[in-house]
Structures are given as C-alpha cells and as structure tokens.
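fold-stage: in
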Amino acid sequence: MSLESIKLLVDELTTLHVTRGVQPSDLIDNMFEDAYVESTARKTSAGMVFDITFLESDDDGTSSKVTMRYTYDLHRHLTLVEQKVSAKKFSVQWARAQAVQERVEKLEVLLAAKLPEDQVALILSTIPKDYMKLIQQLRLVA
C-alpha cells in the first residue's frame, strides 16, 4: 500500500467534490470567438444541458463541425461532457460519476491490500453521501 498513491486518490476525490467544472458562463464567453458558430441551452428536471458548436480544421484543411454537450446538475456541477463530430453520434468524453467511481474503487483496492475489511469499510464510510449516490446509480445502470 503506497501512502502516496492513497493521498493522491484522496486529493483527486476532494478536488472532484469541491470543483464544479467549467461553468455555463465560460461556455457562453466562447461564443465571441470566431470558430464558435452555435449554442443552445435547455433546462431539464435534473439541471441544465448546454450544446456549443464550433468549426475545427483537420490536418488536411478540411473543416468539421464539432458539438460539445455539457450537462449540469441542479447545483451547477458539471456531470457529463460529450462530443459529436459532424453527423456522428455523441460520445462521452468525461463523466463525473465514472471519475468518482474509478477513484473510489482504486482507493478501496489499495486500502484492502493492507488493512482489515472493517477498517476499509470505516474509511470508505467517510466518503460524502452524494459520491456514494453517484456510484450506486452507476452500478444500477451497469
């Protein structure tokens, strides 16, 4: 068990918990740049979804339309980033729930390598409840 690895994972989880991610106002500011061509926003029962489209040139000079979709919860935390290039489907670039789950699972493995199961459970019980809800939601989907 590497204390440095555990500290790094705890730091990453802490950062994810306190950082909201890129905010909608930052996305709107991008619209003043030349490459950006379209923006839409819609409110949902779970939060907000922002789509922002820009033109990107490939290595051969061909211009492609790229749409980024940013999904926020009701507390303005960025929860999902998706990307669509031209007419393709959206693909997930980043998901808060997955990022949290991966780090919690790694932390659990590192702790379990050296500590008894009850101590690992005690340590993991200190993880904020909203994180545990994210992880439980992911497990229900899988």
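fold-stage: in (second)
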Amino acid sequence: MKTFKFISYLFYRYYSTGGTKDIPYFSTLCALVGIAMLHILQILAIFNGMDLLPASGAAPGTARLIKYFEWALLTAPLFLLFFLLIKKDELQSMHYDESKIKRGYIYLIIYIVLSFAFLMFLALLKKGKLG
C-alpha cells in the first residue's frame, strides 16, 4: 500500500502543474484507473478473455455512444475503489526527498512503457503475428 500511495503522490504532483493544475486529484484517479485497465487487459489477453470486453472497432453514431457507456461502466468500480483508497488531503500532505521523487518518476515511466509493450506483445502473440 505504501508503494501505491507513493505512485499516487507522483501522479498528483505531476498533475498539480500545467493545464491540469485545477484538477490534479481527478487526473490522478484517472491515471491510476488507466494503469489498472492496462493490467486487466493483460490478464484478459493471457487467458483469452478479450471477448468479455465491450466490442471494439469503429461504430457509427449511437453504437459508438453505447460502447463508451459500456467502458464507463467497466471502469467506474475501479474509479470508486481508488476514490475510497486515496484521499485528496493525504496526497496534499505527503512529502518526499527530491531524489526519491526523481527516481520514482523514472521507474514509473519505465514501468508504464514496459507494461504497454507487454500488452502489445500479448496482442500480437494472440493474433498469430509472432509465431
């Protein structure tokens, strides 16, 4: 849980500047949901469960809106879970050494890139493009 809170702090600190400085807490929760969804997709790809997800691909008009609604229903429980686990006041009161923050950002970027690369590898493997 300590590492999870530190990752949340890193996102909160990042989103506290620039164009998202007015909504860093919401942006942090969305980033955490995005990472969680990345891992859920990896698990589904490993166990051939991709058909459990809302259908993908371009759809005209109302069908596309329904797909967005299905994805919102899929991610809403994760958003609520992170909302309950991570308090805004707690993020605002956290402080770490600058060296630890810099290392944390580097490790977080590497982790996200490798996780995404692993998902792409799984997708290519399951489609038969690698073997």
